[in-house]
Amino acid sequence: xxxxxxxxxxxxxxxxxxxxxxxxxxxxxxxxxxxxxxxxxxxxxxxxxxxxxxxxxxxxxxxxxxxxxxxxxxxxxxxxxxxxxxxxxxxxxxxxxxxxxxxxxxxxxxxxxxxxxxxxxxxxxxxxxxxxxxxxxxxxxxxxxxxxxxxxxxxxxxxxxxxxxxxxxxxxxxxxxxxxxxxxxxxxxxxxxxxxxxxxxxxxxxxxxxxxxxxxxxxxxxxxxxxxxxxxxxxxxxxxxxxxxxxxxxxxx
Length: 253
Known about the structure:
globular, alpha/beta, TIM Barrel, 8-stranded parallel barrel
């Protein structure tokens, strides 16, 4: 049985004080939640404060980061290494988000290096894949995602694949208010699991959590999560309000 993961990607929102206020409220709202793992991914500037607060609260919420640079150390101005994140208690690291692919020009080779670097430090990559609206309308959605998986997971061995999270995030649904239908999301997530099974074996693929991301809200979370291959959500805007994010995490209520 795969434990659902609800991860909040705060993007470039919340300074360190606002971040701790949000986490305190969220921890209170989720104190009795069972059977669902919840992660928050604040900006780098808030990771230290949030890490200390989660420890102080003995919170069940776990810490994630929004990005990483795939080197142990060196002359990489402005970048953050996997070891630095691990030292702060980070468990999950978002890799390959469409905003980094599209805005910052990150290619699949670079993303694959990040996946490997995160796993080498014992953390869990949340690998984001997804198609643009043009690619979906042209019937290229499956081939686009397959190409991303093939390149981004090239360094991952079969015995390691269960320690990975994949997030299907159609680019056209991120921050737009548009959401893939549950059937659309299930079709892609099932395709991803099928691809993983073909490459890494059925048993290994069955353990991989595959999330959906793209305008997930309290009013559509339960319907999305009811699909057999949707194992949680990578939540953007709705993760910035504690009551909304808690309602998503409580999709079973």
